[in-house]
């Protein structure tokens, strides 16, 4: 089942704009193997809307998920910049340092900052 974790991309965010994001811990049901993933989209009016899409998708893979917090990401693909900031009213502030590390692994040639 740990291989289910490896099938889940670490980062899925919109290609452009300013949007809400959440940091989610996914783990194998009944197990200890886990990893943290970043999800963000402009289509979410509230942070919980993102989690409401992520959770059933993870359950279908036999994984449990819990939201560790949220914030916002500003993605400028032209200038290759990502800015991580803010917090979620419902979930609290995500650990932006973890989010930045996840983003750096995917957006290797980007300038990534956090506030």
From TrEMBL:
EC numbers: 3.9.1.3
Coiled-coil blocks: none
Binding site for substrate: 20
Active-site residues (renumbered): 47 (proton acceptor)
SUPFAM superfamilies xref list: PHP14-like
InterPro entries: Janus, Janus_sf
A Pfam short name: Ocnus
Entry's Gene Ontology molecular function annotations: protein histidine phosphatase activity
Catalytic activity from the UniProt record: N(tele)-phospho-L-histidyl-[protein] + H2O = L-histidyl-[protein] + phosphate; N(pros)-phospho-L-histidyl-[protein] + H2O = L-histidyl-[protein] + phosphate
Function field: Exhibits phosphohistidine phosphatase activity.
Protein name per UniProt: 14 kDa phosphohistidine phosphatase
Species for this entry: Pygocentrus nattereri
